[in-house]
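task queued by scheduler; priority normal; single chain, no ligands, no partner chains; default sampling; output format set to structure tokens
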Amino acid sequence: MERVKRLMGPIIRTSFLIMIIGGVLYPAAITVIAQVIIPDRANGSLIYNGENEVIGSELIGQNFTSAKFFHGRVSSIKYDASGSGSNNYAPSNQEMIERLKESAAAWEKDNPNTPLNKVPLDLVTNSGSGLDPHISPDAAYAQVSRVSEMTGINQQNLIELISKNTQGKELGIFGEERVNVLKLNLDLVELL
């Protein structure tokens, strides 16, 4: 019993020291370093309009429903960033099949000039988080006909706009080429 009493002081002091270092000092140091080195990213990669109002983040997808804009991926959580995630359904799951049918029907209704068999899968399926702000370049090109028809902008100009907004693979080897839908639509608004 005497030995336990003797060890309690060092155990408690060590525990508080670890809590202070791991719970206060380390997070504070990382926050300061991030604010100095990469302040834009540390603050959420926010995008502002001309009046300095936040209109979105490069990291969180938005739901564009107007036919004159490029559309992003389907979101099973309705782009609600308070909680992300998606049901991990197997391809044979009936709810997954129904959701895919609904997405395909919505695509056909909004894009009558593009056959469904030419639609990239990322336009009718959702990402794991439900918040993905990117689509593949093919998904953006598949929407050119509709956007051109609705805005009156020449298809070649839209193709150039997509090309300008296509981001390459990370470090040239990781991931896939992608297009940030919010940035693409902001550039589109400038052409209107």
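post-processing summary
- The chain has two domains: 2-42, 61-191.
- Helices lie at 2-37, 39-42, 94-110, 137-141, 144-151, 155-164, 181-191.
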